[in-house]
Amino acid sequence: MGLFGTLLGFLGCAIGFPIGLFIGFYFFIYSPPQEIQEPKVRPIFELDTDILQSLIPEIPLWVKSPDYDRVGWLNQFIVDMWPFLDKAICSTIRISCEAMFAEFMEKYKVKKIEFENLTLGTLPPTIQGLKVYETNEKELVLEPSIKWAGNSSIVVSVVLLSARIRIELVDLQLFLAPRVTLKPLVPTFPCFANIAISLMEKPHVDFGFKVLGGDFMAIPGLYRLIQETIKKQVANLYHWPQVLEIPVLSPTVVTITKPVGILHVKVVRAAKLLKKDLLGLSDPYVKLFLSGDSCPTKKNVHQEEDTEPRVE
């Protein structure tokens, strides 16, 4: 009887443990979040030292560092333009993802992949401060501090056989400290030829990832793993000294502005020149162009009137 009871106990544990684990996981993923209470607002002089220390990372850079300027006017510009920027950015994302979706469907035999919903939300990013470097080169170096805690909603619908799977990316947060270099500066609109972008710090990325309604980012351990993976991959691509180069103007428009030497040209002979003077023959001279720049030039006119001048 004792052996039989022990076997029943092990059997019950073997069956009950997976069932309990599955039920617990289901309620953990699909249970609605608890109602969040709004914090009490108190004057800063009523806060103790520990609370003030915890608030220091949230203080804008223009408060902590005199090198950063406050750009409230630029943030207001972004707020006014955000509804239109949202549509333009989302339209670009849709177009750029069409080829990727088509390749994925052909490779994995998926019937259909499409954006069910794509919006960056109503909350625009804010620039916490802007630092401008002065250099002797023909370039403009900017270092903005960008924070975006938006209410974005990106829903991708995947039709596999007869099942439709909804994948959601919601509540995206990005904290970036990029260095933006506009170089070289040229006299052709928009007055810079390339945009070079580097991240001076590893970015903070946070988002909700839902599959079939369950938030996978709520699984213990998975959130930190994804965070570290994203930081590592982004750092390998764009963390300084790595640079993302975005060409703006055609290379043919961008010309070398710094002289690197002196070129002496001697014209030895010319033949069958047309007569351009009403009286007498032509006064020939030569024009030589190396680029589109206005460089100092020197013109020597051949003094002898001749249609076939020759220098001995």
TrEMBL record:
Molecular functions per Gene Ontology: lipid binding; metal ion binding
Q: Which organism is it from?
A: Cuscuta epithymum
Enumerate the spans annotated as SMP-LTD domain.
67-249
Question: Which InterPro entries does this UniProt record tie to the protein?
Answer: C2_dom (IPR000008), C2_domain_sf (IPR035892), SMP_LBD (IPR031468), Synaptotagmin_plant (IPR045050), Synaptotagmin_SMP (IPR039010)
List the coiled-coil residues. Answer: none
Under PANTHER family, the record lists: EXTENDED SYNAPTOTAGMIN-RELATED, SYNAPTOTAGMIN-3
Q: Which CDD domains match?
A: SMP_SYT
What's this protein's family per the entry?
Belongs to the synaptotagmin family.
Keyword terms of this UniProt record: Calcium, Lipid transport, Lipid-binding, Membrane, Metal-binding, Repeat, Transmembrane, Transmembrane helix, Transport
Q: Which Pfam families match?
A: C2 (PF00168), SMP_LBD (PF17047)
- Classify the protein's membrane topology as the record does: Single-pass membrane protein
State the protein's name: SMP-LTD domain-containing protein
Which locations, inside or outside the cell, does it occupy?
A: Membrane
Could you mention a single GO BP entry for this protein?
lipid transport
Any transmembrane segments, and where?
A: 7-29
**Cellular component terms per the entry's GO annotation:** endoplasmic reticulum; membrane
